[in-house]
Amino acid sequence: MEEAELGVPSVEDANVRPSQSSDGAHRHTPFLTALLSGGVAGTTVDVALFPIDTVKTRLQSPQGFLAAGGFRGVYRGLGAAAVGSAPGAALFFSVYEGMKPRVTEFQRRHGVAEDSAAFGHMVSAMAGEAAACLVRVPTEVVKAAMQVGAEGSVSVSSTFRLVLNDGGSNAFLGSVFGGLYRGYGITLMREIPFALIQFPIYERMKVEWSRYQGREVSPLQAAACGSFGGAIAAAFTTPLDVMKTRLMLGKDKNGVAYRSALDVARRTVAEEGAGAMLSGLQPRVMWISIGGFVFFGAYEWYRSILLPLEEGQKQ
């Protein structure tokens, strides 16, 4: 699962509460707590919902759903996802939580959108995405190749070597990493708009829900906020996800290599129609909304355990 398509809550006194109070002020989240909670929760969701991700990837494959494997072997590539999930999610959440108070301080000192908590959430999420994609993109490339049964993708190690030795790749840092960073740019182009949509919805819903009931939201309520925001963001960014998937796979159904994200979009629309840019919309929305709900619950539960332990060590 795209780990970044989630959100970050906060905890106090072993009870989960949102990462900002009802007046919009940010609360500090310890680095180690965010790192461990994000990593474990991200892995939990990726492994649990992996078959839905496989179906989505095959629907977006240029060779077509059935030719890419249909419903057969829906756990192909699970090993690659599991290996990259924890470090990718942990890197995102640690950067996101670490950036929020810094951005808030910048807003206060320089008078930049002082009354907008959403501004801090968006900037922090963008920084987290840029960092996490350094881990996430190689994982996605290997995983996608295995999910569609690319030639030579028998195991995680063999697929990794296959992608690494892709001498014809025009990927980011291709001369060093082969095709491992194929689609890095379009992944950022997908993740950043996603975060700009999801995180303000998630944070604002928590604030309004807290005000309505006169107390901080529970883990279950925070999970619902993240699920709702994720579903909306997933629907709007599906065309970017289609472009990302095809660029990472590298070639169309005839074996002709894609040159860029724009080349993917142009050829997809010309050959299959504009509707192809929404391929996998339903499983993507379902996967991210369910995954977001599960993640928020898992994240807050892990965090409610880890935060008191870390604070106890400091006392």
Model description:
With 315 residues, the protein is mainly α. 67% of the residues lie in helices and 2% in strands. The chain is built from 11 helices and 2 strands. The protein has helices spanning 31-48, 50-60, 78-110, 117-147, 156-164, 174-177, 184-213, 219-236, 238-249, 261-272, 281-314, and strands spanning 10-12, 15-17. Helix 4 packs across helix 7 (184-213) and helix 7 (184-213) runs antiparallel to helix 9. The radius of gyration is 20 Å and the shape is globular. The protein starts with 9 loop residues before the first strand and ends with a helix. Mean pLDDT is 80; it is low at 3-27.
Short key terms for the protein model shown above:
315 residues, two-stranded antiparallel ribbon
Element pattern in H and E: EEHHHHHHHHHHH
The helix content is 55-70%
Mean pLDDT: 80
Structural class: mainly alpha
Summarize the structure in short:
The protein is globular. With 315 residues, it is mostly helical. The longest helix has 34 residues, at 281-314.
